[in-house]
Amino acid sequence: MLYAYWLLTTDYLILKLSNRDISMRILLYAGKGGVGKTCVAGATGIITAQTGLKTLVMSLDPAHSLSDAFDLDRALMDKNRGQPIEAGEQLWVQELDVHEEINNYWSEVHSYISILLNTSGIDDVLAEELAVFPGMEELSALLYINKYVNEQTYDLIILDCAPTAESIRFISMPTALEWYMKKVFRLERKIFGVVRPVARRMVDIPLPEDEYFANIESLYARLKGIDQLLTDPDVTSVRLVTNPEKMVLRETQRAFMFFSLHQTSIDAIIVNRVFPIGFDDDYLRVWGNNQQKYLDLAETYFHPLPIFKAPLYDSEILGYEKLLEFGKNLYEGKDPTQIFFKQRPYELARIDGRSFVKLYLPFVTKKEIDLSKIGDELIIKIGNFKKNIVLPRAYAVMEPRSARLEEDHLLIEFGGSSEQSQERGEG
Ligand SMILES: Nc1ncnc2c1ncn2[C@@H]1O[C@H](COP(=O)(O)OP(=O)(O)OP(=O)(O)O)[C@@H](O)[C@H]1O
Ligand SMILES: [Mg+2]
């Protein structure tokens, strides 16, 4: 049973969760491809390391660019493949290498899958490559995070995520794995134990041996507690990095919904590549005005989360000094390990078979609430206040029926299907 209590030390917290002491923070930077996640994660690491926190910046993206952003020595990286490399005082950078991880931890799982693929007619090299199935990188990262937390190796772990889809897979991995281990794994292992001798004579594909299951079981055991870590708002904060552009903001909204669904705490939005204002040039002024429109939109999308802005530089951000300057501009003196927002901005609930969306909306007074839905987007208007949220699939097929303010929350009930409502001329 989970029990937690606070002990305040220096600037950050010690949280006691079941039987382990957690005296650290995990900051996860996610967002669409190319928005600036690696720069933000790297810059954050430099700032926190300079305040004396032992900091690890870990890249979860198989297409690593963290070492490039830090301008680290390639030969040194190759020599310590997949391991943390010192990138400054109190600062380490780690780019996971899935092949190294497979050799160390996944050998039975990997060899069974490659044999299986190989017997399906796929040649050796391709089978080896394909047997690195989606999720292995994410699982390897989770294993490291759990290890570092248990061994109290760092004060702070900063995760530089792959583009949105992969980071959603990362965050959903503990839940998916727990479901698999509870509902499928034991049964599967038992069935294979019983049928293996008979089935071996009847089917011409290799069946997994018990070592395969033992390998999965031991990996799972090493992940114990990781789900609590990632969903504990006092430990893990997700920060969505975005740009002031329509398509990018749209994807950020989706990521916002997915991370909220997984009960992770998003405590800030970072809008990167904001044009400096006051250009004489017409062309740049148009760009600037367009961006302002999207910055305003970002406020309506993500209110009441704080929005940090980082300017567009005149060149790429490479190396320690440039990253440091970028980080200073971004946080403007604020401590990046701070929890910038703690309330869950958005929750989905099924109560007595009825479906609700519960939004945290402080400072909103009781006025007429206007709800509308376009596709999977819910638009809420209360007086001058306007908010758009992207709905998960299960809700997008329904219509908002009613809404009421309860203390600091707006409770919206959903029901029926969009089609039924359109037939009745509602919506
Ligand atoms: N504010 C900025 N001004 C100028 N260049 C920037 C800015 N932010 C990022 N860049 C540059 O844009 C490129 C992409 O940035 P970065 O690698 O941080 O993005 P990413 O979101 O991590 O990308 P990926 O999804 O590919 O991992 C880099 O060359 C970086 O130096
Ligand atoms: Mg990156």
Outline:
Helix content is 43%, strand content 25%.
What does this structure look like?
This protein is an alpha/beta fold and 427 residues long. The protein has two domains: 6-98 and 133-174 and 227-331, Rossmann fold; 346-423, Sandwich (Immunoglobulin-like). The protein has helices spanning 37-50, 66-69, 74-79, 98-105, 107-119, 124-130, 136-151, 164-202, 210-222, 226-231, 246-261, 282-302, 320-331, 393-396, 418-423; strands at 6-9, 12-17, 20-22, 25-30, 55-59, 85-88, 91-95, 156-160, 236-242, 266-274, 307-311, 346-351, 354-360, 369-374, 377-382, 385-390, 399-406, 409-415. It has an eight-stranded mixed beta sheet, sandwiched between helices. Strands 12-13-18-17 form a four-stranded antiparallel beta sheet. A three-stranded antiparallel beta sheet has the order 1-2-3, with no helix packed on it. Strand 9 (236-242), helix 11 (246-261) and strand 10 (266-274) form a beta-alpha-beta unit. The longest helix is centred in the middle third of the chain and has 39 residues, at 164-202. It binds adenosine-5'-triphosphate (ATP) and magnesium ion.
Helices, strands, pairings?
Layout: E1 6-9, E2 12-17, E3 20-22, E4 25-30, H1 37-50, E5 55-59, H2 66-69, H3 74-79, E6 85-88, E7 91-95, H4 98-105, H5 107-119, H6 124-130, H7 136-151, E8 156-160, H8 164-202, H9 210-222, H10 226-231, E9 236-242, H11 246-261, E10 266-274, H12 282-302, E11 307-311, H13 320-331, E12 346-351, E13 354-360, E14 369-374, E15 377-382, E16 385-390, H14 393-396, E17 399-406, E18 409-415, H15 418-423
Parallel strand pairs: 4-8, 4-9, 5-7, 5-8, 9-10, 10-11
Antiparallel strand pairs: 1-2, 2-3, 6-7, 12-13, 13-18, 14-15, 15-16, 17-18
